[in-house]
Amino acid sequence: MSIRIMDAALRDVFFLVGAPVSWCSQKQETVVLSSCEAEFMAATSATCQAIWLRGLLGEMMDTGLQTIEIRVDNKSAMALAKNPVFHGRSKHIDTRYHFTRESIEKKQVVIEYISGSFQRADIFTKPLGRIKFAEMRDLLGVKNQPNPNLGLGGSCGRQRWLKRRRLAGG
């Protein structure tokens, strides 16, 4: 019998009208024994933040409270969150992490599956290649706009360098 202890990270990104308004990335405080458990705990963290944001926006905008969609890329974690009678493998999970299930029952949040290739929060915790990083950055809505005033290459930067060199007498 072998036990693999996983080192997991919590990460979430919240969007309002298509733009990220809140994000978090931190190492998980609890040691987990499976990816299901790690994702379940991450979903609980995201649920807490989502409900807080929902209340804040409700006060600021004086609007009704809507159900928030939490996207999870682990189907086992979704089943655990939705089904109060899962099985013996989940009995060791601390009861505080079952907050997500209660929030689903109260219709405060809804859990939806999203493929790992579209999980936008992964950019905060996973090492990504250049192309995948660019894809995730685009999914977040972050634009790569080089600032010519920084002098980081390009003809504008070179022209400024040459001008400074001429003025210095070089």
Structure description:
It is a single chain. With 170 residues, the chain is of the alpha+beta class. It has a domain at 9-126: Nucleotidyltransferase, domain 5 (2-Layer Sandwich), CATH 3.30.420. It is built from five helices and four strands; from the N terminus they run ββαβααβαα. The protein has helices at 35-61, 75-82, 99-105, 130-140, 154-167; strands at residues 9-16, 19-27, 68-72, 109-113. The strands form two sheets. It has a two-stranded antiparallel ribbon. A hairpin with a 2-residue loop joins strand 1 and strand 2 (19-27). Helix 1 crosses helix 2. It is elongated, with a radius of gyration of 22 Å.
Q: Care to give the gist of this entry?
A:
The protein has 170 residues and is an alpha+beta fold.
Shape: elongated
Largest sheet: 2 strands, antiparallel
Spatial order of strands in the largest sheet: 1-2
What is the CATH C-level name of the domain at 9-126? Alpha Beta
Arithmetic mean pLDDT: 76
User: What proportion of the residues is helical, as a percent range?
Assistant: 25-40%
